[in-house]
Specification:
Blueprint lengths: L1 H22 L5 H23 L9 H24 L2 H22 L6 H17 L11 H23 L4 H28 L10 H6 L1 H24 L2 H8 L2 H12 L6 H20 L1
Length: about 290
């Protein structure tokens, strides 16, 4: 069950990243983040009220608050790094944080994977890095871009660790995800306000009509992201964090495959090899788990 839930996480995150990437071609990235998270917060708020999940409130909710603050900050660092350095280097390095931080938490909690699991994790991690299409030569990575990338990587991993610790029950998970989304909206909204004050318009060319037309896609991005956080938390509760973290980190492969199928983008040989290795590593982990 851990493997199934973690793989579902990677599919949902990959789909959300792909949808978000398409939307940012038409509107500001912060606008996409804020609107999609507002929709997700409304949906989760309805579920919390209907299910009475607020009764599950506990000190663990501070982990959800931390995830809600760290997540948007990490994403902003990631976007800034992409603007400063080559995407083929920035993206795979940032995605490693989604593996290394939860793995560190798992080891700290005493988890010790077997030889087959270690082999599967190694192959999958290498595959994820290669699937990002690491560049050889070309533009170098500046010190600022590298620092921003490492901060983003740590932030992405920290969000996964915080979410897995935010609740121990399904109703508590709904409440934790709701609190996380509220914090996402506050932090993202504050960042959007600052950019508007600096002269960057919040609305795309065409105004609110473009936002209204994109609402179904924005809702999909927000809800898919929420669902991914939920399935990841359930995966870590049903089995080892070390396995869940690696399988959930396959989302860059999902995004690349979606771009190939929908946008007809062609994968380079190194990306194809990486995707194959990632799938092989996930198969090893699923078989051993």
């Amino acid at each position: 069950m851990t493997a199934v839930l973690a793989l579902a996480t990677s599919i949902l995150w990959g789909a959300a990243d792909f949808g978000g990437g398409l939307l940012t071609r038409r509107m500001q990235a912060l606008t996409v983040v804020v609107v999609s998270q507002v929709i997700a917060a409304v949906v989760l708020g309805t579920i919390v009220v209907a299910s009475g999940a607020w009764h599950a409130a506990s000190p663990r909710l501070w982990c959800a608050v931390a995830a809600g603050v760290v997540g948007p900050a990490a994403m902003l660092c990631f976007y800034r790094a992409l603007a400063l350095g080559p995407m083929g280097v920035i993206s795979p390095v940032a995605s490693l944080g989604s593996v290394l931080v939860p793995l560190g938490v798992g080891f700290a909690l005493g988890e010790r994977p077997g030889l087959v699991q270690i082999a599967g994790m190694t192959v999958a991690v290498i595959g994820v890095v290669l699937a990002g299409g690491p560049q050889r030569g070309g533009n170098s990575v500046t010190g600022q871009a590298l620092v921003l990338t490492l901060v983003a990587a740590f932030g992405f991993g920290a969000v996964m660790a915080f979410i897995s610790a935010a609740s121990t029950t399904v109703t508590g998970l709904f409440l934790a995800l709701f609190v996380q989304r509220l914090c996402n909206v506050v932090v993202g909204g504050a960042a959007l306000y600052v950019t508007v004050r600096r002269g960057t318009p919040a609305l795309p060319e065409g105004g609110t009509s473009v936002i209204r037309a994109a609402l179904p896609a924005l809702a999909f991005v927000g809800i898919a992201d929420v669902a991914a956080n939920g399935t990841y938390a359930l995966a870590t509760q049903s089995g080892p964090v070390t396995i869940a973290a690696v399988l959930a980190s396959l989302y860059p492969v999902v995004t690349a495959v979606a771009a190939m199928g929908v946008l007809k983008e062609r994968l380079r040989a190194v990306q194809t090899a990486g995707a194959s290795l990632a799938l092989a590593g996930s198969a090893l982990l699923a078989a051993s788990g």
